[in-house]
Amino acid sequence: MNLNELRNEIDLIDQDMRELFEKRMSIVKKVKAYKKEHQMNILDSSRELDVIHKNVSKINDETLRDAYQRFLQFVMDLSKELQQ
Fold first, then answer.
1. Crossing angle for the helix pair 65-83 and 3-37, nearest 10 degrees?
2. What's the rounded mean pLDDT across residues 46-52?
3. Cβ distance 42 to 84 under 8 Å?
4. Structure pTM?
5. CA angle, residues 45, 61, 54, in degrees to nearest 5
């Protein structure tokens, strides 16, 4: 596979990630509305930790686990910002 083909594959993955990001943030807005309606705190630390640990443990390539954990934390931080 040449460099252009590899880059094209990355572009397709980026497209999927963009679509999934928008879908996730749409759900985050619904979570925000639910929490507001039920007078709940935005931050649920135990849920956040559970989600991170559950997903990081499923990463097959151990060299990527730290990066994936940071990625998930960043996405969750963005989600919390959207809920503010």
1. 40
2. 95
3. yes
4. 0.87
5. 25
